[in-house]
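Supplementary Text 2. Reproducibility record for the structural model of the 310-residue chain.

All settings were left at their defaults, and a single model was retained for analysis rather than an ensemble. We include the record here because the model underlies the residue-level annotations in Supplementary Table 4.
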Amino acid sequence: MTDRINGLHHVTMLASGAAANNAFYTQALGLRRVKTTVNFDAPDVYHLYFGDGLGRPGTVMTSFPFPNAARGKRGTGEAALTAFAVPVGSLPAWEERLAPLGPTTREIAFGEERLLTEGPDGESLALVEVAGDDRTPWTEGGVGVETAIRGFHSVTLALRDVGATADLLRLMGYREAGREGAVTRMRLDRGNGAQVVDLHEDPTARPALQSAGSVHHVAFSVADRAAQAEVRQELAAAGFQATPSIDRDYFWAIYFRSPGGVLFEVATEEPGFARDEAPEALGTALKLPRQHDHLRERLVRQLEPLEGLA
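Retained model, structure tokens:
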């Protein structure tokens, strides 16, 4: 069992329109767009990052908005719900804020009150009341400190059988923290605040069909490349085939497929989003991977205009 995982790093979803995706996460949820770049493998598609003021690991929702993509179909083998942590007592304010965008539902899970909602592509989201979360929120997006999102609370993976994925998470340092119905809660005892993974078992469900509104992958956080190499070695010893470490400009990443079919990533906390922009200017300029910089003129013409992009 490794002790190098610090919790979630980021969650990456597929979307159908950059402007709508940007508006929801920055205006409705009040997150900061901390980086505006493009997909490494499809440079005509944005890669947008939304998080706290600095895009700290454990706070960042990212998206690949493929223009006019059809909606995905929910099923097993994917992250079915992404949950954010908010202060205790803030859900009524969130209900009022999100009401114009669609229905919301209140429920209690594992003793925590949460508000279920959807993003613009039907992505399943939750706001969970968490006591004592001392992460510093972004409060310049129209949401005050008494309400603002602190970062991720958890992801819920939809699986036909949770056993092998639970074993993998134990290898990654998680322990079982409880069960409610078909859901097994796995938790790290220490980390960055985004330390919960819920496993929802449904042996009769069909596999998911990923497209807009689907989570593409779930990334876990490690301090640096040395820690990442140790995790990769332990994964290999357990029979998992992880990619070599790949430079993603703002972190280094390895990828592997979990037993239930969900794509996992292990990403470093360094160098961070301020490596090519001043902290006060994060997300305001189009930043391109080196190999795509020669495409800048064409991409500026073709990519959908975004509010706040210079």
